[in-house]
Amino acid sequence: MLAEALRNYYGSPAKRLTQHRTNVNVNDKLSVLAMSATASILLGIAAMLGFGVSDFVAKAMLTRANVIRTALISQTIGSLLYLGAALAYDRVLPNFSLVRLALFSGAVSGTVLCTYYVALTLGKASLVAPIFSCLTVVAVVLSLLILGENLSLQQLSAIALVFVGIILVAFERGGGGDSSRTLSVVLALLAAVLGGANLILQKWIAESGHYLMGFLLTRISMVAVVTPLALMPGQETHSVAVSRSWLRLGLLGLTDVSAFFAWYLGLRLGLVSIVTPIATSSPAVTVVLAHLFLKERIRVHQRIGIFAIISGIVFLSAIS
Questions:
Q1: 3-class secondary structure, 199
Q2: Best CA proximity match to 142, nearest among 286, 262, 22, 276
Q3: Which of 25, 35, 85, 178 is the 20 to 30 Å CA partner of 311?
Q4: If we measure between CA atoms, which residue out of 107, 109, 130 comes closest to residue 55?
């Protein structure tokens, strides 16, 4: 009777073994999810640093005459590395639906890139870059509505802190009557809306079984969109000056494309609503570099914004 009572209380050996295996599987799945969340945050931080450096380099070298040509050459150079990776590890062509989605996403990316680069030539890097980062708002809203992502109250608080930081960094008083600055703001906002919507497409492509080939197809499509614009009259004016800057063009392309790839992988592993705010916090990096090398002034509220961005990222990393 005692043995039977113990079996009833603890269960049979086979039942206990099954329960143990179930607990192990659940723990393993939770560990994988935690590792994926951590990896996605680290990739978001890598994208943030990459975008910050590339935005600074772009601002330092762009002129109105060669902006599109610079974008074409730098993006082509940066994409060569991933061409080799895709051919080495993902040679199978995806299905037609994925190819079509990747090509469309790449075309949108090309439009966003050109619009953003033109905005950089018209305005200050410390103003245009933060405004462009408002694509985070578009991406987070769409991820909640379309992808059905759920966030905890703590995660929402951390993301809100990052949003506040971006707004503070972007806010700049004075100079409101400058038509070039106004146009740069409009173009930066347009690029932000298109870029935020495009992140949903990137998420779908990244989650496919051909994420390397999908990424490569988006780059090819983007270059195809930029090429005709680069060949338009007026873009060849400073071609000699561009050809003398291959080192900086290579740095710009590799840094920018690598940042995109880190962001892309982050979307594959984590939530759009978490990875995107981190990746688009790059203005904090751009503003610091612009202050150090271009002598652009960082105001008190921008310093507070940078601190808020960093604090939000650290908080988000700790709770995710």
A1: helix
A2: 276
A3: 35
A4: 130
Whole-number Å distance between alpha carbons of 205 and 212: 9
Integer Rg of the chain from CA: 23
Residue 60 to residue 65: CA distance in whole angstroms: 14
* Residue 282: both structure tokens together: 């790059």
Give, as one character, the DSSP assignment of residue 136: H
If phi > 0 it is left, if psi is from -120 to 50 it is alpha, else beta; for residue 175 that is left
Domain boundaries, given as residue ranges, for the chain: 37-319
Q: Indicate the pTM of the whole model.
A: 0.72
* Backbone dihedral angles phi then psi of residue 238, each to the nearest 5 degrees: -110, 35
- Residue 196 burial (C-beta neighbours within 10 Å; 0-12, 13-18, 19+): buried
Inter-residue contact 268 to 115 (CB < 8 Å): no
Structure tokens at 176: 């409101």
Tens of pLDDT, residue by residue, the chain (320 residues)? 545 544 554 455 555 445 544 444 444 444 555 567 788 888 999 998 998 888 788 777 765 446 777 778 888 888 887 787 777 777 676 788 888 999 999 999 989 988 887 887 787 766 776 678 778 778 888 888 888 888 788 888 888 888 788 777 766 655 444 667 778 888 988 998 999 999 999 999 988 877 788 888 898 899 888 888 777 765 554 444 545 577 777 888 888 889 989 989 998 888 888 888 888 788 788 888 888 887 777 788 888 888 888 888 777 767 75
Q: Do the beta carbons of residue 269 and residue 35 sit within 8 Å?
A: no
The whole-angstrom separation of Cα 110 and Cα 90 is: 23
Taking alpha carbons only, the member of 231, 202, 235, 232 closest to residue 219 is 202
CB atoms within 10 A of CB 73: 23
